[in-house]
Batch of 2 targets.
Target 1
Amino acid sequence: MQHLLSDQTSGILYVVATPIGNLDDMVPRAVETLQTVNVIAAEDTRHSARLMAHFQISTPMVAYHDHSDERQTQGLVERLQRGESVALISDAGTPLVSDPGYRLVRAVREAGVRIVPIPGACAMIAALSAVGLPSDRFAFEGFLPAKKGTRQNSLQALKDETRTLIFYEAPHRIADTLQDMAEVFGPERELAIARELTKTFETICKGSAKELAEWVASDSNQQRGEIVLIARGAKTKAVDALDAESIRVMGILLEELSVKQASALAAKVTGQKKKALYQWALDNQDK
Ligand code: SAM
């Protein structure tokens, strides 16, 4: 295990989440941290100037990207080792989530310097919390490839993933991506779009891949702003294997019993595996 105990004389790297639109989502601890650190490492210092002005933060900023040269990362590590405190921010939301910061955090951890996260807004979590798709198991896929062929290959590789899938998507690609999802995942796969979260034109919409693809293609307003796209996972193989009689029995039992009780009883009645029945119930509970 690496550097569980940090060097007490070093400073602290704070990884600070900032709002994804609505500045009122800035948490007080984030403001206080940005006001008191020695320096803020920002993805884009000009972009973050508005946030700084709004919260009267006058701490000096330096630009930091993951493609910043090694010297810049080392420069920040050395400042931390000298006892200075540094805050890492990105343009919006949580650093490192489809945003710069990974290389810095890794280098700082390897140097044995303490890292403190200041949690806050994150578009994928905000979207997941509101779209009404299964949230017990999910996979964040970030941005899909921009080119159609490569994007379709990526979707093909995800086709049988049973966890809920979360993507970030650019507005000028959303119509094509939805069309690709309808083709690759099938027209009936349940999808959701969360657009412009926390902002004036916030729109959250759920439907089949076919419905959403047609709606977005026909309404150019849906092809604007910032977008999180969420796809329900594929049905499990166990579901495919369930015969009509088991589904009928489960349907009746679930009206009166918990998922656990219904699958245990149905397993005795039908001879099906309890686990398969249990999974079927989880996948079909809200249908
Ligand atoms: N680090 C950020 C986070 O924590 O969510 C994500 C940064 S990534 C470069 C930007 C992408 O996040 C956008 O293209 C969009 O897909 C998503 N996003 C950011 N803000 C959003 C918002 N207010 N509503 C919907 N999606 C948003």
Target 2
Amino acid sequence: MKTIYSAIQPSGIMTLGNYIGAVNNWQSMQANADNKCIFALADLHTITVRQKPEDLFNNSMSFYALLMAVGLDVKKSVIYMQSHVRQHSELAWLLNCYTYVGEMSRMTQFKDKSAKHSDNINMGLMDYPVLMAADILLYDADLVPVGYDQLQHIEITRDIALRVNNIYGDIFKVPEGFIPKVGAKIMSLQDPESKMSKSDPNPNAVISCLDAPEVIMKKFKRAVTDSDTVIAYDPENKAGISNLLRILAVAENKSVEQAEKECSGLRYGDLKVRVGESVVEMLRPFRSEYDRLIADKAYLLKCAKEGAEKASEIAEKTLKRFRDAIGFVPRQG
Ligand code: AQP
């Protein structure tokens, strides 16, 4: 049995990038009976960037409902909110004492986010990878499915785990990252050199999994491509077209090569319509299921509570193992 762990921040609305790069794979992993899957809403990570309380609350509820709407099942997987499981914060503190400031200040995401939020370079922003390491290590995860942007954080998680194990013996399982073959980095529709990101101020750059079909079509029709006319998969020279082909491949469940071959004679405008229509079809069932779930907050909260209880039970065992190894006096009772 393999343990799969992954998380997503409720820092906006789930994007097509999040779905293709991460959540879609969570679903396939859940479908394999040999996997034990644990998925979290990384709400503690989300406050590394200032959030309005009502937005954090609404986005968290919305994400929880959406995870279920896209096919994650609380009967098969543990699905919880990170802030409901106190062991995450506690392990993050302990791991801080085994992590070097230099390592954290070199992290690409820290540098990017510090530049983006120069008015609020808080300690949490720098400590983000340590909290992420705590998330993963608490559950003895074997595999962590993530998009390409998170790979560096998986590497540092492995480094921290190995460092602790070298000092105290076998405390943590050393996890592997899992990057999807297609779609590990879905790019902005307006700037195909940058990743599609929840917080992009330009709404035309991002497809939200809850966008209405006509909005999705409009955004794809406006997608930035190039001044050429040839459809070819060439990420270096044709970033926009390659991004559309990657999205099409996932939406139509085929390889990028196949998508490229089928579309090679099309005009750019026709390709955009085809990608838009396929994405609309892929997302269509999620919308109605989401509407049903978000209307039943009591049910969502009950599922989140049960998820947190299951997660906490597993997490406490790992945390205790580490606390005892460090030499803390065991808690009584
Ligand atoms: N564009 C993307 N392509 C492929 N995978 C992606 N992921 C994110 N964007 C893409 C993957 O989604 C998972 C959850 O990501 P996250 O919650 O850490 O947040 P984010 O979407 O990466 O955050 P943003 O958009 O960058 O957030 P903001 O805009 O709030 O700062 C991860 O596995 C990630 O790899």
